Amino acid sequence: MDAIVQFLRARRWARISLTAVIPGGLAVLAVVLLGYPLYTNFSQDRIQNRLKHEIASAELKQAYQARGTKVGDPLTRIVIPSIKVDVVVVEGTTPSALKAGAGHYPGTPLPCEGGNVAIAGHRTTYGKPFDNVDLLNVGDVITLETPIGVCSYQVSQKPFVTLPDGKLANGSSVVDNAPGESVLTLTSCHPKGSASHRVIVRAKLVKGQVGKA
Question: How far is CA 135 from the centre of its chain?
Answer without folding.
Answer: 15
